[in-house]
Amino acid sequence: MDFRVSLLLPLSLWLWGFVSSEQVSVCSSSPCKNGGTCMDLEDGYRCLCPQSPLAYAGEDCDSLYDVCTGHPCPSGWVCSRTPGYLNYTCHCEPGLKGLSCSVEGDECKSSPCLQPDFECIRISSGFGCQCQSGDGCEAELSVCSSRPCHNNGTCIENNGGYTCECQPGHLGLHCEEDVDECASSPCQNGAICLDRVNEYNCFCVPGFQGHHCEIDINECASRPCRHNSTCLNLMDHYACECLAGYTGVNCEVEIDECESDPCWHGGTCNDYIGFFTCSCMPGYEGPECEVDVDECQSQPCLNGGTCHDFVNSYQCDCINTGFEGSYCELDILECASQPCQNGATCLEGVGLYHCVCWPGYMGEHCEEDVDECATDPCLNGGECFERSNQSYYGKHKDFPEQFSYEEAAGFICRCPPGFEGEVCSININECMSQPCQNGGSCIDLVNSYLCHCLPGYSGIECATDIDECEDNPCENGGACEDGIADYICHCILGPDGTAWGGKNCSVELTGCQSHSCQNEAFCIPTYKSEVHGYLCRCRPGYFGPLCSTPTTFSFTSSIYLFINMSANSESPSDIARGPLTSVSLWFRTTLPDAILFYRGHQMEHLYLELSGGLLRVTFLIHEATSSFTMDAPQVDDGQWHKAEVLLQDSLELRLWHESCEAGVCLFRHPLRETVPVSLLPSFLQIYIGGVDEELVARPTKSFIGCLEDLQIDTKIVLPQDVAGLQSSGFQLGCERTEWCLSEPCSHGGQCIDLWADFRCHCSRPYEGRMCSYESPAATFGQDNSLSFATFTISNNLGVNLNLSFFIRTLKPSGLVFQISSPSDMFLTVYLKDGQLLVEAPSAAPVGPSGYLADGTKHFVMLSFQDGLAHAILLDREEALGPLVVTPVLAGSKINIGGLPDQESISNWGGHFKGCLQDVQLNHHQLQFFAHPANNSFLQEVYVGQPTNVVSGCVSDDTCKSEPCLNGGHCTVTWNDFNCSCPSDFTGKHCEEKVWCKSEPCPQGTTCVDVLSGYVCLANATFYEHNAVEFSTNATITRALHSLRLDFRTRDEDAVLLQAVEEIDSLLVAIHNSSLLVEIRSGNGVEGVNFLSEVSVSDGSWHELVLSMEEPSALSSRWHLCLDSSMNTTLDGNAGNLDFLKSKTIIILGENFTGCLGHADIGGVFLPLAMPNTYPQPEQFLQINSAEALLGCHGAEVCSPSPCQHGGSCQDLFNAFSCACSPGWEGLLCQNNIDDCKSGPCLHGECRDEVGDFQCECHKGYIGKRCQINVDDCIRHQCQNGGTCVDGVYSYSCKCPPQFTGPLCEWPFPPEQCGKNFTCLNGGKCISGPWGANCTCKPGYTGRKCQININECDPNPCQNGGTCQDSVNRYRCVCSASYTGERCDVDRGTPSAFFPFPFIEVVVPVACGCLLLLIIILVLMILTARKRRQSEGTYSPSQQEVAGARLEMDSVLKVPPEERLI
């Protein structure tokens, strides 16, 4: 007892401190709202509410002041006001006028406004009271404003006084008395009872727990001892016996043997369980690194050196030994100072050395260079260079890049041109290289040669072909090709389509102007021996000089043409000069398999056939077969195709098709040496479109379609000349009917074009020529009648069976199909629980996966082949495994849907109820009813004997029994019904009422329909002391084996949900910010315990779900899911929560500040909204009067938003977090993120932006992160089939073997000017590194200057001018209104006033008139002068008249003749 008292003493002191701490100032929590002033009182506080700009009232100033609540108006008058304002008006109530109130006279005379500073204002039907002094008016205080009721009691005014309505746990006039719940001593086992408001708490002594401390705790139940230690359960505590290496109360501490630093000299200690090891520093060893390693022990110093030991090293002292080095291993060398010069070798001696010089050097130290050029050894003017002169190296071509003493002796002679040799003594024969080309002869000269060229060549090396094209002999745009002493003109069509010919393309070819080519043949003009003519190039299907003979014929039935080539007049030698055997033809068909032609007989033949729409050629000779199929393309598409077979040294098959490369597909198969097949008489026998069946080893099909342009051994075969073509099955031309174009096949049938007809491939259950007939369905068990159909098998079926049918049912079990005899049962197909099963004697039932009893039509195919079963169901193919079927013999019976024997059918689930359609056994249809004639293509049918089988797929009248309740409307669906229920009912039969339809829940809550009722749900806010208690209504019948609770808080310690019933308990709490779960129920000894590692006190919503793993067990493990992210199985075992059904009190939100949301136990809700009466029998009812604040309300932490730069504030319940805009980070989004920090630009420079970055890419890269290498090959210029290889900002060309050059533009081997390369049209041939190239004359282009540049493309002529191209120039032919080189000068347009060219006429005429006038004036002046001279008239000058001296420049000069008179 002393021990317990000593433990309870500090607890009592803590409680005393807790009680005394409650006397702290109440106003410190700022309870007054809306700017109210808080005043501390002895037992609480009082709020002085503000009066302006709005007046507030209430204990906490939490509501706007309502002046009318004080009844300021006289009795019978109506008070009107605006909440928050002091002014009001009084109106006489309409029904009381003249009775208890009157509006006659001035109502303000009686001064009805009782409040000071209020003035009465008369209004219609009453008066108003208005404050006149601004802020001087005050709201009338109520008697409850002084908060006379203590302990949160509610003050209620009445008749000028008040009464206090106390909270649970308090009594008294002013609720000043606290009810002592501890008076009854509810706490057991020495626990201390702490009285609380309307409740109490038991503080248990160690070793006990429970609401009343009635449960003795097994301290070892939670397995506190770790590391396999033994737990000893003692009184009120436990003890752990630790294994070696561990210590601590719970053996949780591993003993650190390294704690005492046992390792010496800096060694590293490695701690293990019960021992340690030391990792020593280099130079130390021993268990504790206590031994210094003696590195001198191995005597490393040589040649008498002294070894000095150090830590992890040593040093050799080589003094007076004559050696040096780390080990005294190096002899001291006198040559170390390198006394020998010019790369000489120094030889060591005893106290001396000797220099061995390289050739070309001499002296004691090899310092003297011998001058080899002093004797002038080079002849014929050669220049001598010493090899020992290092300045020549890397600069003169005869010297290497690097100087070497090994080659420094001697000299080099640089010979003058024409001489060679070591001393330039040999005259070079320049003709040795045969420089003269094209047959020219060479004469050797000194440093030169002379070529004598053959006729037609010129140049120093006779390399220049005399260019006969230099004078442009070819006319009309013809391209000139130079030859040897000749040229060839390649003529082209003129711009107007004129054809040119002749030697110089000067002759207009007119042969096609009056040609007779027929059938759209192409005419080619000719000019031979100065005579015009033409040739006709025929279109496919025509032949002859004028293309007038048709070659097209068609096969319309399964026959063939036989052609005997033995009548051919060619001799074998004539045939041998060309391909030994060749057949080419055009064909057109839609048949995938057919013989095109066959040559030879059974032992020696060659034939071409269609196989699966592909071409296949077969060649047989000397019992050796060569055969191959052209993999693609398909040629049975009804289009014309050309094929050719060649047989010489190889077997070739060619097909002209647009999908082939270059338009031709070629397959070649080499042949071994054999007898020439052209000499075989059998190959002269040819079959077209088919062959005799005895000539081929396998069945073949005849060709039906069209052929044309049939050539055998390069000779055309005309259908008019073939015997037998007039017989039935052949016809000239090619008539074609597109059978499938009109889509004749119904119900999704596939139309197959057979050229002369068509066939429909029908989808089951449709059949007939055009798939228009549907095989009738049969209904079994209509209105639950017993129905079946029996068939008799007329032939032996054996053991390999194929059964297929359509099925539709809602009955999950029943017999579908059975084959039996009076003595044996061969095969049974039946439904069990909606799955199809197959059963045979002595074998377990097997079946495909899939549910069939869903009312939908399904196709089923069962196959039994060689003891194995397969099934196709729900579009899936499935192997069912081994299933041996007893051979089915003729006379056996087939029963479908049921059996005549009603007793034995129960083994397969009873009769089948539903529909069956198109039942087929081994491709024979089992007909329940007679089909119309000519509607079935099946080879054989079995006609059955139906019993109560209805034609068609007919439903039962399921609404006959009126299954819909509560006014629901019944609609028949197939063998089922559907009830259209009123809006307030639901369910299959409209039996369940929809309570929430009538909106029974108050505002702010959500109505949720539950079984037989509803519940009003809402989130609720708790403030530590407003816990809610629930208890069952004692009508819960379901098992309670799950729990869900949603919560949100920042409390580090709180109780979310707690319930205790004797030894059973449930606790969901928060302990040190972690989620704590404890369940003790059922026969579980230890119970279930869980403490989360992650914090849940983060202000976010959390969802907790608990469920039993085995709900039907007395106890099992429990599963916990937290926020859908944590899924774990809890330690320990516990039973279900059924103990909560026995009026157990369930407490929610004890000592909890935060929000609770969804709460249910076993699916029964604990509604946090205000108490309500619900109709459902299973409920948890609130038993205390505490009301939680609906909704989840915390502090306004996000108003105004603290987040910067557009960040979004997220309310986390009394805390916040900022969701930053892109580019910002930090608690308040105050820091700009350096988006370039991670180096996002792979091949470029990064520039940071707000929420983004910009990459300035290096050349050759693009993309957001410069991650894309630009494909420079997109616009590559690789020529001649070269493959472009992409690089970085460049590309290279990988050339085919026959081309080279940067762009694969040059042939390889390189072409040479004058040999195999010639420039046309006067181009100059130049040899380069890649071969020959042409420098073209102006006006030509192309590799060989073969293209005349069209200067008229694009047209340079403006204003509608016509461009005429010429060599390197053009000429514009302008319209009448324009002139100029490009028709760009406007001649001017004559107006209506000047119908002729005004400017062109008037200007010349005016100029002529002016010139004539000037001439006349000059003549008149000359005449006047002559007249003065002859008549002697005198006219005094101005100077003489004035008699004064005037400047002569200011007067007119007098003519000399006049002055002389």
Automatic annotation (TrEMBL):
Presence of keyword Transmembrane helix: yes
Organism placement in taxonomy: Eukaryota, Metazoa, Chordata, Craniata, Vertebrata
This protein's name: Protein crumbs homolog 2 isoform X1
Domain Laminin G: 552-734, 775-953, 1017-1192
Annotated signal sequence range: 1-21
Keyword Cell cycle carried by entry: no
Keywords: Disulfide bond, EGF-like domain, Membrane, Repeat, Signal, Transmembrane, Transmembrane helix
Pfam families in UniProt: EGF, EGF_CA, hEGF, Laminin_G_2
Native organism: Pogona vitticeps (central bearded dragon)
PANTHER family, sorted: CRUMBS FAMILY MEMBER, PROTEIN CRUMBS HOMOLOG 2
Name of the encoding gene: CRB2
